[in-house]
Amino acid sequence: MKRIDKVYNCLKELCNKQFAERGEIIGVSAMEIAHALNIQRTNASSDLNTLFREGKVIKVEGKPVLYKVKELDMVSDESDMVVKDVFDSIIGANLSLKNAVQQAKAAIIYPPNGLHTLLLGETGTGKSMFAEVMYSFAKEIGRIKRNAPFVTFNCADYANNPQLLMSQLFGVKKGAYTGADKDRMGLVEKADGGILFLDEVHRLPPEGQEMLFYLIDKGLYRRLGESETQHKANVLIICATTENIESTLLRTFIRRIPMVIKLPALAERTYEERFELIKNFFREEAAIINTDIMITSNALKALLLYECPNNIGQLKSDIKLSIAKAYLGYMMKRDKGVCVHTEDLPEYVRRGLFRYKESKDEIDKFITGDIIKFSADNATPVIQQNNQIFNFYEALEEKRKALEQKGLNESDIKLIMSIDIETYLKKYLLNLDKNNLEELYKIVDKKIVDIVNDFLNYASKKLKRPFSEKTLYGLSMHVASSVERILSGKDIVNHQLENIKKVYEKEFEVANALRERVQKEFNIKVPDDEVGFVTMFLCLDEETKEKDERVGIIVAMHGEAAATSIAEVSNRLLGDNYVIGYNMPLDQKPEVALNNLTNIVKRVDKGRGVLLLVDMGSLVLFGDMIYERTGIPVKTIEMVSTPMVLEAARKAILNASLDEVYDAVVNFSPYVGRIYKDSVKFEDSLKKNVIITACITGEGTAVKLKSILEKNLDLKEKDIHVIPIEIENKREFRRKLLNIKEEKNILAVVSAINPQDDSILYISTSDVFDNDKLSVLKNKIEALSQIEIIDNMKEVIRENIKIDSEKYISSFKRFYATLIREGVNLNEDITIGLILHLACVIERILQGKQLIHIKDTQEYIKNYPKEFDIIKKAIRIIEEGCSVKISDEECVNMMKIIYSL
């Protein structure tokens, strides 16, 4: 080989090494080349300049002069000669996939033939696609020929048959086994000069992994049945697995795969990337059906937020299914165009709407209108705004009908409709311009504006709070459209009416005054549903009003100086003594710390609440306890760092609300966000019997309470689920409970706020560690399991005993509940025995048969008067329910069964 060729190859190798180690190519000096090849520096410099004149290398002027191989410099991110490559087509290449892309490029260009690579990632993260892009990149930079093969092999197909696996990979020699009538090429031979992609490599048995060792080490292999002949193959191997490689692959195999690339799950990627993926999939489908595809804002929110365990693959599949449903509606002429509505999404996708509140600010970046349209040839989605802002009755009416026609259940309909209404009104009030009244008169009858203005003055006196100009403008436009609707004979339906009446009782009563005035002025009948909408305006005004006070920031940590140190540093950087630090000595009792922090919160609160950043232990639960004592909203974050405290104080100084400060800090720290967002799965927790843990301090405290209850009450074994929810005020709390009660049986509420509902057992946050207080809940849970046993006996009674099983079991449950209230202890065996015995007694009474007499009846009554009296009173429920008269002798029999006398 000529010296100049050796210099070029050496430069190429050193550039490759730089890129693999640094992700960029800086350049190599003539001295480095001379040292590597053991030649004179002047000779190396002369050859490098010749290569520069031939256009094969790039010269970087400086001291010393550096040289780069031209073809490699094209893939160096930091070079002035950078050009776009195939990796740039991957969504997220410069975001969550940036590191993976750099690793992949390094693996392909590493001399002499690239590095064998292992791709890690969950199902659906795009490992196969990523391997194909690596193949395209290898062709693009000339590492392999343009016609080089890309061969895919799924190891799961032959996982349990090593011989067949070997024949597939390496080929077969004629006569190797019965039926092998000719030589057959294997996949390794087919992949020669290119890339062999081994998918699901964790399914490759140890024998199969060992078969690859020799190929990886030597580039040689034998076909099945050959003992002497060896074949040569230049193959770059890319493997992929979803499993933990330490437990599924041989260490000797792992050592032979030097490049390991981890592809992130969809949940770990940014909302921006997820939106780009959704946009891309919609455009692909638009091209397939050759028409534009639209999607409602709520449906897009759900796609952006739902938990997608099978990642990008599932996201694409769910989008295809949803578009197929929308296309069917279009073909059947139910819709004017192909538009994906929330009801077109699978149920588990719709659940993503539950998470909208916690990610609202991030999600709203991509949703600026009611309908988003995607076209196959559009570079960006087209946003369509709904100009009829407050004339929305027709839209709600049509939506309700559409949801019913699609077969959605009532709870899903209520969820979708409530999100439409509340989000709509809040967004409008927050963004409404403060025009003067003359401008308002141009679009709304002056008579209506005057009526609304008078009403708001009246409401302000009754509710003892002022109303903003935004409410006057918005409510005036709303009343104008509702009057027009009623006059045209159309219905008004408010899907939150019952909840509004219960939760906002006082505001609903005040809103009736506007109804009476409108009815009188326009000679129309205004329904309760419309009064409900007016009530929402009165309540939403309070929620959207701006205040001047700032959120207080407190740092509380264990130790002698940790909290005050962070607070001091933060205050110095801010130039303001805004952050308060509280040090909790390790030997300080929690009650003392709680009292001290309660006093600090009282002092710090200026009307907008307090953010409490804590490190661990009992401090995590203090927020709700402080609220219980003071009524001051306190949100808690279980994590403290100086940057987090600075972010909290910065947002607070800018007059952000407590929710905004809390969300900013949670989003600032991915670790905190991951804890809370992944832990709180409201929609997955809704089951038949539930316990609610609610807090105003942030979802983290509610999750802590959930863990404590599950451990202390052994709830998982009893199939009772705990739902942790975040609340802002008593009204919102009551509304959420009412929604849950419609679908589920709430056994208890653990919260700093008493729901004021006699049908729900209430346990204060501070009583969670009190065994006596929890014993009431334990007894209720035990009784609940017995009720299920009683219900299961209904079929047994119906098939074997000639009485009305429905009436009997219904009566027995009330009889059982009475005994429990009297403190009678009934285990499963006693309960079943009692059900059967009493059923047989009733059957004999109804058939006129003689009952079994027992001796010493009066003696038992005399010796156990209290026990007999309890049963005698309780048995009246059975007598009334089943129309029978049960004797004292039978009561004594039951007393013997219950008390084991």
Structure overview:
There is one protein chain. The longest helix is centred in the C-terminal third of the chain and has 30 residues, at 771-800. The model is unreliable at 74-83, 379-393, 427-436, 543-548 and 673-687 (pLDDT under 50). This protein has 7 domains: 3-73, Winged helix-like DNA-binding domain superfamily/Winged helix DNA-binding domain (Arc Repressor Mutant, subunit A); 86-264, P-loop containing nucleotide triphosphate hydrolases (Rossmann fold, 3-Layer(aba) Sandwich); 267-386, no CATH class; 432-541, Orthogonal Bundle (PTS-regulatory domain, PRD); 552-667, Rossmann fold (3-Layer(aba) Sandwich); 689-769, no CATH class; 782-899, Orthogonal Bundle (PTS-regulatory domain, PRD), CATH 1.10.1790. The strands form 6 sheets. The chain has a 5-stranded parallel β-sheet with strand order 5-6-9-4-10. It has 901 residues and is of the alpha/beta class. The chain is 54% helix and 11% strand.
Keywords:
single chain, 901 residues, alpha/beta, Arc Repressor Mutant, subunit A, Rossmann fold, 7 domains, four-stranded mixed sheet, WH_DNA-bd_sf, DNA-binding, DNA binding, nucleotide-binding
Radius of gyration using CA atoms only: 37 Å
The CATH class assignment of the largest domain is Alpha Beta
What's the overall average pLDDT, rounded? Answer: 78
CATH superfamily of the largest domain: P-loop containing nucleotide triphosphate hydrolases
Category from helices, strands and their pairing: alpha/beta
Count of DSSP strands: 22
CATH-assigned fold name of the largest domain? Rossmann fold
CATH architecture of the largest domain: 3-Layer(aba) Sandwich
Q: Give the number of domains.
A: 7
Which runs of at least 5 residues are low in confidence (pLDDT < 50)? 74-83, 379-393, 427-436, 543-548, 673-687
Instruction: Work out the helix count.
Output: 39
Distance between the first and last residues' Cα:
106 Å
Percentage of residues in DSSP E strands: 5-15%
